Automatic annotation (TrEMBL):
It catalyses: sucrose 6(F)-phosphate + H2O = sucrose + phosphate. This is Sucrose-phosphatase. The lineage of its organism: Eukaryota, Viridiplantae, Streptophyta, Embryophyta, Tracheophyta. The keyword Magnesium applies. It comes from Capsella rubella. GO terms for molecular function: magnesium ion binding; sucrose-phosphate phosphatase activity.
Amino acid sequence: MERLTSPPRLMIVSDLDETMVDHHSDPENLSLLRFNSLWEDAYRHDSLLVFSTGRAPTMYKKLRKQRPLLTPDVIITSVGTEIAYGNSMVPDHNWIEILNNKWDRGIVEEETSKFPELTLQSETEQRPHKLSFHIDKSKVQAVSKQLSQRLEKRGLDIKIIFSGGNAFDVLPQGGGKGQALAYLLKKLKTEGKLPINTLACGDSGNDTELFTIPNIYGVLVSNAQEELLEWYAENAKDNPNIIHATERCAGGIIQAIGHFKLGPNLSPRDVSDFLECKVDNLNPGHEVVKFFLFYERWRRGEVENCETYTASLKASCHPAGVFVHPSGAERSLRDTIDELGKYYGDKKGKKFRVWTDQVLATDTTPGTWIVKLDKWEQTGDERKCCTTTVKFTSKEGEGFVWEHVQQIWSEETEIKDDSNWII
Ligand code: GLC
Ligand code: MG
């Protein structure tokens, strides 16, 4: 969050399972990829991305390996009981202090064990401020009532959350996704960085609290669970700031950005011909997002007007521009574009996707920009990432010129095989 010097234009606070990530009807992750390129293209540089998931950190990391998730600025895990910042997930210790109020994990463990209706979830999902069980839906009301009474008698102040038709979480009263968001907003305000707009996105019971935070927009994705829809019907149907989208998962988030007019809502993935799409554009990050989308389409064999495209690309590279391949080999940028020609359609019919993450541009000296990003490439189930640095120059009124591109294997890439890596 330090990189922002002024209030973020938009803060998206989104749940992951069945909200950002569609586990049921989008095996190619197309909605998520649409959201990703919209975010990197139009929001990354001046906005904040927050993921708020029920998963514990280990399970969150697992999901990141399985799906093309962007790197969030803030990650809230374990149903709002763990908050961490940035790439290296630095934990917020102040938050933990707050959660300790009237909480004793041992007592919760002891009292919950007296309910045969509760079956413990896996060990990975049991956290210092979250005990999670499975329960039959018909038992929720009675168990919640009795358990709350017993814990109250023992001096604790807890919160029970029912989600997804079968999950039962016990948390400190001060925890939960809503309280975590309220805490984050307060912290940002103290730093003079209260977001201009905040959009909360969710699909199930543990997301309900997100929609109760004042002065924010909210979207329930079309595929929201029964327990959240019931809450919506009773509490928020007449609130114009909270909508139930008609699109599933990340598609519903993009729909809400458009509905509430929070900023651009056309994903570059929905633009079929980049040559025709002349955006008034002061950010060279856009060039990079567009190029790597073009690159995906090129190798999938989905580009029309191939020659016009390559000619326009070559024209935007400096004649002496150099590309440094992750293997260390160097070649001219224009030769690299020619080389690309040989690979047209080589990934046709294959599960091949390219996406960019953390695209950030800095203008070092007037007329010169450095854009840094992670470029991901996935073929089948194997994926690789290069940290990429691009230097651009631009003269007044003219487009950006690619001067230099350098790639190095990212730490997250396990198989560092450069044989089929072009750019
Ligand atoms: C996630 C967590 C689980 C929790 C559920 C509902 O699925 O992994 O522990 O019970 O969210 O909050
Ligand atoms: Mg969910």
